[in-house]
Each structure stands twice: as structure tokens, then as C-alpha cells.
Amino acid sequence: MIRITARKSVEYPWEACIEPAAAAALALDEEAGRLIETPHGVAVARPSTRAANAWALAQATRDPFVIMISIYIFAPFYVTRVIGDPVLGQTLVASANKWGGWFVMLSAPLLGAMIDRLGPRKPWLAGVVTMMVLLTAALWFTPVGGGGLPPGAVLVILAAMTALFAYHEMLHNALLLPAAGMEGAGRASGLALAGGNAVSVLMLVGVLFAFALPGKVDWSWLPAVPMLGLNAALGEPDRIPALIVAVVMGLGAIPLFRLVPDMARTVLSVPQALRAGAGDLARLVREARGHRNPLVFLLARMIYTDGLTAILVFGGLYAAGRMQWATLEMLGYGIILSLAAVVGGLLAGWLDDRIGPKLALKLELSVLMVMQTMTLGMAHDRILFRPWAGTPFWDGPMFTTLPEVVFLSIGCVLAVCVCAAYASSRTMLTRVAPPEKMGVFFGLYVLSGSATMWLGPLLIEAATRAGGTQAWGMAPVVGMLAVGLVVLMFVKGGGRLEAGG
Predict the structure, then answer these.
(1) 49 burial level (CB within 10 Å; 0-12, 13-18, 19+)
(2) Phi first, then psi: what are they for 379, rounded to 5°?
(3) How far apart are CA 174 and CA 17, in angstroms?
(4) What is the C-alpha to C-alpha distance for residues 442 and 429, in angstroms, rounded to an integer?
């Protein structure tokens, strides 16, 4: 779907975008204050604050899937306790993400363009949400010791969720202008991103105190055993987030379907819409020709974004395997890094203003390369490639050894810089793309984000198989960041606005 980015956070690809077609369809007659018709159709109702809030809530209750399932809780649990081999598990999860990424690359752009031409988004989104809820809930049936879903089925679910998440983002983003209008788009987008982080942190804290800490620490105000009678031996405290995320995701989508206006149905049939959508994509590419500088930036961004996404997606698996962390430690790790990511978003804005987005990106990517290299030398018994045989320095419930504290510190810096790099990337494009073609290049910006989302998982899968360790598997991430940084060097502009960048 051809979209213009309005606001953005760290990606899984975590972008809030709006599309030129929808923008045109929602153009406001300033004198009459009403929606006017365009060739692509009209919205069936005017934007409103209630609709904008409902749109934001749908994203706020969708994004916890990434935090709770993909990064910090379910995937690390499944790899370490159900599969029982972190190296094999990292390989299998990488393969699932690779196949999901390939499917998105082949289907999402044309599907989005076709739906643009058909008109209504909500029926398609309802189908996507239904499948996401059912597949997420199905992950509950993965007990330790077998007897649940076979590994092949779980990997199919993870691959399908990679594609469905991308489709959800595409369709949900296309409803931003119908929900909030031009004036309210920024507020709604920011509210959705902040809400996603807030709901994720609340879920992490809730699982920590209701299911992970009980029975592990003797605090009078905590339950003595996990709530709801969950059995830790079967991994139920690790699996319950799947049900929580599924329920919250489903309930959070209901206000969107009730309150957010949809686009009216056009007269085109599906084959006609498919042909017209293909023409829209071809025209988008043609209009970008002759603008070498922004295209070089999009190439750089496409490469290093694969590295950023790999850090997010595989960081939890890596931490669980190398540091031998269980649910308790992973919950604490997720809460702390989620808070660090907020700092990254604020830091990016400050750096973009002070030194310009290009220099900010160079700094952020350089720090990420150093930090990611350092993580390759970390393990529960290693610090920066050197063996460690010390003893715990306190008797707390988590993070009791020096390797754990060092790894946690590195993780915080990674979270800050990943978030900052995503934000600075958006700002950078606004500085190097021609103003009269900003919509074209933000459309390509979104398409490039999905074009190679399979590359990081493919390289990690191959490197993990070849090297036989998780550290070898994550080594290509440093290479993707480095190549992206080198290509960025050839981009002109991107300095401070005051300096004419």
C-alpha cells in the first residue's frame, strides 16, 4: 500500500503511515469543512476524536505481540525449554521469519495497491485480526515435554504471524486519515506508538508479579504461587502471555470497527483493481527515477534496517540462550529495554536538531556496531570474549552476576540506538527527498522496508547453521549495519536545517 509516513517508532517495522490515495480521498473543503470526492472514493464519515482514539487503541493492543511473543517471553521460552537447544531454536525461528518475509515481499505491495483501488479496508482488516488472534492463542498449546503443537506447526504460526503483522500494519495505517484527518494524524499516530509501549510494559509487569515472581521470592505482598494455578513445570507462566496478547488484541480492535470510518466501495472489480494497483506501483517507481541521492539513502536504509530488525527480533532469543535466562530474567530484561527505547526516541529528536539526521545516523549505527560486537563475546560465563568464573555479587531474584549486568547494560545502549536510528531515518528522508515528490519517496520508503525483511533472518539462519553457535549466527548483523553505514556515506545532505542541510 502506497503510504506517506506521518510518525514512526522502532520498527518491527513499527511505522505509522498514510497513503496518497487516502489523503486525496480525505481532502477537506476548507470553506465547507466537509469531505470531498476523488477518483479513489470517499470516506463514509468524517474523522473524529473518538475514531482517532479507537484507531490508536487498535495499534496499542496489537504491538504487544512483538514484545511479549516474538522478543522477550514466548519465543525464548519455546527455544530454550520446548526445543531445548538455543542454537537449533535460533535457526528454526530465523527460518520462520525468512519465509514470512519472503511472503510479505511478494504479496504485500500489490495487495495493498489493489485494496487502495477497491476502497474498503475494514473487511480485510477484520479477517487479518481474526487470524492473528486465533494463531496467537494457539501458541498456548506448547507445553514443556511435548503433547502439544509439533515444532513444524509452531514455526508455520510464527511465519504466518510475520506476514499477518505486516498486513495489519498496512491496512491499519491506511485508516489513519479516515479516523483522525490531516490535523489529527500526528496526535493519533503518536498516541498509538506510546500506547503500544505502555500496554507492553504493563503486560510485562503484570506477568512478572502475577506469574514469574510468585514462588521465586519471599515477599509478603506477592502470591505464594503463580496465580490461576499455573504449572511452572509445564511452562504455563511462559505460555499465558499468548492468551493475554490474543484477548487484548481482539478486544482492542473492536472500537476501530465500530467507530473508524472506512472508504466507500469503488466500482472496480477485483481483477480491475489488481491491474490498477500494479499500475500505481509501476508509476511510483517511474516517478522516483532521476533522483539518485534519495534513492541511495533508501538503499542504505534498506540494508541497515535489516540489521536493526534482526537485533529486535533475535535479541530475546540470544539473551535467553547465551545468558541462560528464564522467564523472570527475560521479563526484567524486557521492561528495562522497553524503557530504554523511549529514551532513544527522545534522543533521536535532539540529535537530529543539533547535528542533523545524517551525522546522527552515523553515530547511532557506529555505536550499534560496537555494542553488537560486544554482545557476541557475552555469555553467562564470559565477559567480552574472556572466560568468567566469579560468584554472584548479591542474592536478588535476577541479574546477580557481573556478566548479566554487563549484558543488560549493553542491551540498554542497543535499545536506545535502535530506536534512535529508526527515528533519524525518517527525518533523514525528509531532508534529502525533493519536497514536491515527498509522497513518492515515502511510498518507496515503506516498500523498501518490506522488500528485504527476509534478508536478516536468512543470513542469521545460514550463519547459525555454519558456525554452530548463537554468536556466530548474530555476526551478520554487524555486517548489515556496516554495509548500510558505508552506503550512507555516499548520500549528500542531511545536515542541520540551520546550516542549510
Answers:
(1) middle
(2) -160, 175
(3) 7
(4) 8
**pLDDT tens-digit map of 202-254:** 898 888 888 877 877 677 777 777 888 888 888 888 899 999 999 999 999 99
CA–CA dist 496, 407 (Å, integer): 34
Residue 230: how many other CB atoms lie within 10 Å: 17
Q: If you count them, how many residues does the chain have? A: 501
Identify whether the C-beta of residue 376 lies closer than 8 Å to the C-beta of residue 488: no
Could you report the per-residue pLDDT of 438-454, keeping only the tens digit for each? Answer: 655 666 776 676 667 77
Residue 218 C-beta-side C-alpha neighbours within 13 Å: 1
Question: Which triple of cell numbers denotes residue 95?
Answer: 527460518
What is the three-class DSSP state of 459? helix
Cell of 358: 545524517
Tell me the one-letter amino acid at 32: A
Residues whose CB is less than 8 angstroms from the CB of residue 108 and which lie 6 or more positions away in sequence, other chains included: 1, 163, 166, 167, 170, 450
Q: In this predicted structure, which of 97-101, 298-302, 380-384 has the lowest mean pLDDT?
A: 97-101
Place of cell 532513544: 344
Helices (H), 216-356: 236-259, 270-288, 292-322, 327-355
What lies within 8 Å, CB to CB, of 156 at 6+ separation is 96
Position 39 pLDDT exceeds 60: no
Q: Cα-flanking dihedrals φ and ψ of residue 3, to 5°? A: -135, 155
- Report the half-sphere exposure of 396 (CA within 13 A, side-chain side): 11
pLDDT confidence of residue 140 = 95
Q: Which pTM does this prediction carry?
A: 0.76
Neighbouring C-beta atoms of residue 331, cutoff 10 Å: 28
